[in-house]
Amino acid sequence: MRRETERRLAKLSAARHARLRRRILGDSSKPMVGGGAVALIERLFGDQGVSTYHRRYAFRQESRIVETGDGFVVLKAYDLDQEGPVTLKVYDLQGIQDDVRELARTLWESEVRILMQLVPYQRRAPGLVRFVEGDWDQVTETLFVAWEDAYRLTLADILKEPTRGHRHLEELSTRVDLLVMLAEALYELHGLGIIHREITPQAICLWDEQPSRAALTHFGMSIFLNNFLWAPTPDAFRKGETAVSSLRYAAPERLAFLASTRDMIEAGEDYRQDFFSLGLAMVEWFTRPFEPRDAERFLPSDGGYDEYAHSEWLLIDVADRINHEQLSNDRAAEAALKDLLRRMVEFSPSERFSTAGQFVKAARDVQALFRRRAYLALCRKPFKVVFSASECAMNLDLMDPRESPRALLPYEKQIRSIQTELQQDLAPGVQIRIGLDRSRRWAVDAGGRRRWLLRGQRHLYRLEIFRSKRDADTPCPWIAHVYQVVRGSVVDDMTLVPFTAVKVIPLQESNQHTNRGQPPSDIGRWDELVEHIQSTEATAAAEMDFANRVLIQSLQEIVGLQDAAADLETYQFMVVATKEPQGPLGTLFVTFRYAPEADLEFVAQHPYIRFFEKTRDRRPAVASWLQRLQRDVGVAFDVAGDLKQLRVHQRRIVAILEAVDIERRELRLRLPPGSPPCPTLAFLRKSRDDEHIVARQRDAIDALEADRYRIDLLREPGHANVTLPDLQLSWRTLPDGVEPDKNKSEILRACLRAYPLFVLQGPPGTGKTTTATELVAQILKQNPAARILVSAQANDALDNLLESIVKTLPDRNRYLLIREPSGRPRAVNPVVAQLMPLRSLDEFFRRAKGKGKAYLTYLQQAAPERASRVQPIYETWCALLDRRHSEFERFLYQSANIIFATCLGVPRLDRRDLDHFSWVIVEEAARAHPTELLIPFLRGHRYLLIGDHLQLEPFKADIYAVAFRTRVRERIEKLKELASESERMFDTTQQLELERADRYLAPFSHLFSHTLSMQHDTLIACYRMHPVLCELVDRLFYRKIDDTGMPTNEPVLIPATTRESRAHRLRASWGADDWLHEKSLIWLDTTTYAPQLRREQTLHGDTSKFNSLEVDIASALVSRIRAQDRDKSILLLTIYQLQRERLDRIAKDHHNVRSLTVMGAQGKEAAVVILSLVRSNTHENPGSAYGDIRRDSFLNVAVSRAKELLLIIGDLQHFRTFGQDAGRIPALAELVTNWPNAGDASHVGVHRPTDLVVGPSEPRGGR
Prior knowledge:
Layout: H1 2-11, H2 14-26, H3 37-45, E1 50-53, E2 57-60, E3 65-69, E4 72-79, E5 84-92, H4 98-118, E6 131-137, E7 142-148, E8 153-154, H5 155-160, H6 172-191, E9 194-195, E10 204-207, E11 213-216, E12 223-224, H7 244-247, H8 252-255, H9 272-286, H10 307-324, H11 331-344, H12 356-379, E13 383-388, H13 389-395, H14 404-407, H15 411-425, E14 432-436, E15 452-455, E16 459-468, E17 474-482, E18 485-488, E19 495-497, E20 502-507, H16 526-536, H17 538-541, H18 546-565, E21 571-579, E22 588-594, H19 596-605, H20 618-629, E23 636-640, H21 643-648, E24 653-661, E25 666-671, E26 681-686, H22 691-705, H23 708-715, E27 722-723, H24 742-753, E28 754-755, E29 757-761, H25 768-782, E30 788-792, H26 795-808, E31 817-819, H27 830-833, H28 837-862, H29 864-882, H30 886-895, E32 898-902, E33 919-923, H31 930-937, E34 943-947, H32 957-981, H33 988-995, H34 1003-1010, E35 1016-1018, E36 1021-1022, H35 1027-1038, E37 1054-1055, E38 1081-1085, H36 1091-1094, H37 1108-1124, E39 1130-1134, H38 1137-1148, E40 1153-1157, E41 1166-1172, H39 1182-1186, ...
Parallel strand pairs: 13-17, 13-20, 29-34, 29-35, 30-32, 30-33, 31-32, 33-34, 36-37, 38-42, 38-43, 39-40, 39-41, 41-42
Antiparallel strand pairs: 1-2, 2-4, 3-4, 4-5, 5-7, 6-7, 8-10, 9-12, 10-11, 14-15, 14-19, 15-16, 16-17, 16-18, 21-22, 21-26, 22-25, 23-24, 23-26, 24-25, 27-28
């Protein structure tokens, strides 16, 4: 009954078909049951006539139904998230046979996987339909795929009703353009190892608006053929289950699977079958539709496949229509097009194009011929130029000497003079040029749109399309409206347009409607001309919009700042003494003295250095620099006459430091024999070994500039989001019987569903490493052939994640892991060392030899004769392995499942041809500079960024931010100045885009803030800290801020530990009271000590500081804790390097004690943390008084390292002096003295450590 109804509906016209279908589906008194499309539509639409599907898509009963089939329906819907129309393909798994249900599920899985792989290429390849989402809908129990608003028109619709599309689709040049677009889409598909396999007119969607577009759909039958992106191969290619009309377009080698005998062709699958299918569809479109019964000649109704009949049909019918149909009056273009079509539909695969690259090149050659013909025909037409003499008179530059005689004329005579001049300037036969203004003076209008300019004999005109108000603002593209003469100018790089005739129409008022009643039949079309020039001028076509240029320029500015940071310790010295060498090739000793006047002049001219710290007075800075150099005698030094020579390694002298005189500010250097002449006034600095780092970042920016998809992903990550099917997961890396918390499970599922990007914020101690390790295990479970790049900004963070993966990854021996070395040689633990390339290569060779030996031993026992033949092969194989050929190392990298490399070490993988990974996971991404993060970002297909933008930021990010924002302000002022000079309105949108550019300084924070809710999340279960310390961190940094600027009482972080499990059990038995008992947070207040004792100190010429009193208190604390517990881990923390050097002396004297600066402490933890704040002075400037601890990111790291006990040593009164201007330190002091939660107040306290260190004190007052 249902199939009979569908057959009858198919015979009706398109309009009657839609009306009848709506009437049948709207009749609730006649329900249809079963797995058919009608029953599925009824269940989707619901009883009310309006339904929301999957909480995101809305449609009505009158929604256009595009296609139906057994178990699926394709229809239009409205996306409530993106607020636009989409196309839904819904698969029904109810009430259908098991084999059909399994086929539907396989088709759905294949389509989702294919579309997911194509997401990065869909923006640059318009010939591929754009994916939105694929998932399982729990309410209706259906599977679905959502993509962009396609199926407005298909090639099948055009073939059935040729006049259905827009008139321009009938033009042969437009069809050739769309053929090239589809060829480029196949190039992208085949480049990813994907064969479409089902290219039919129904699978080619067309858009009939300008510019024209065609895109491939129907990826349910597509397959992967490359080595690491694989999926089950769907194949409904069985006679009787696939319509003959669809089988007509299948290639002979694929139809051969249906044949019982194969004399002419072998059955097989490769990329060339797509050329054949597309070729048949294009032949049908360029000539005339095939007869419905044509396919029955080689696909008879009794089954099978007749290869001889198929070959005969192609050679006679198809080839005949290609040869004899007249397609164009341009014989050369027509011949090229026919050759292209003939080669596409060759019966033998070997006669077709062998690669998609060859196919695209041939198609573009044909397109060029047709475009040249259309352009020449266009230029032979006369053009009408409409201009307003009055407006031209007002916009002429009368201050120009050439215009001064006209400026003295009355206004009416000026207009007549201009009218006469324009008639002569644009006279017939004049060589006219058209193009863009390269000087950018008149490049864009007030709205930011590019201006096309037309140049006559003397003047330059702004070209616009005339619009008539009486015609409801409809464009009249055959008339160019020149209403403003820009100025008399010569622009040589415009495109020459050989017009045969130009008719100038004077127009006194620009709103007159001279276009009425003037047909465009014999008049040239300016829009076509501009479109042609725009497509042929590579510089114009490649020009990015302003927002993208801001992103690229921002990244270039950041790299420039990093490169210039080394100039901070580059100083100008003058030669004061030389010791001549012994003989012509002897060693030269040169003494240099600091030249302050020349150095200060260098600073004044430097574009960045004035923004960096320590540069307000360079004299103390150079003294500190010389003091540090005393420990570096013997290091290499760079000497050059100017700064550029230092950076480009030209005429640079590499010398050795012999001696340092701090008082005289002199350096003595040893210049090796053969050095270039030493300049008398030179720049000096320690030799850098990181120039290649800046070069790698610049290379990454250059690669990004050509990658529109990733530019858009960085700018607006929410716009590129695709939601993948939900998965039921079971954790694989936890011990048996241990269940993950709900938050981590939900985040893991969300991460696997988000495509292409997921941003994970991990506050201190919440298990970022555990989650990343589990994600790797899940990826390898879903696809054992996946290739994963794990990266981080620093080696320590990367090695921590590596160790976690090695220890907990299930079936570890099934996978190959490699740790790419990076940075300077350093001591690494055995786990990391085992994964270094040479170790991995040795392990690979050992396992290969072992397997070969085991097989040979087996043969010696089971088949001795065969073993004697295998023995020489095995010995040759072993000898080859022993040679360690470089190809083996490349093969090892190519075979690796997981590669670990730092962000700046990733480019080293290019030597092994590793430029693409299915997943890129970046640990501690918030600490990476944007250009560092960009390097692994360009190599990924999907991304997981893990970090915490509320902890440490990239190195010197605050300094870079000051310089960056200053440069942005300078650019804005420059744009305003240019706008003023050109007498046009300044575009405020450009100013807003520039002012927002500083978001690229912190890419993790930007991506976390601008992704959709399903693309980012925060780990909230804290496993590290005592519950009181967890609440401290939560209150200070992670709770939401209310309207009054105060944190709310609603917690974000949830402690996953108990007070008992994090009790330190230490006692202060040495004092009068036990101030350590049950405490987890204690401030050791040094306020009572005399100012001269508690004040911080500094060394001469050094900006770092230390505090001897706090060192003594820390030493006493460590000794007393060690007396009670010899194994408890202790971490000594401080902001300052000088203080850390003194604390390090304490750590060396005790077991399991270490000292770190806060900058190096992220990712570290200890049972007891002793934080030395150092500062204690009377400065009124909060920044000067507090130092870097006033920065929230530093304080967050400092107070979140302790698992059981946090001891803060500092002058409490000093840190409470300056209020909120000094960051969160006053809030910390307030929490310690007045803990808001009365139940936990006993775990927090303040103690004056006079029982640890006795010294002169001030009179006690207050607490």
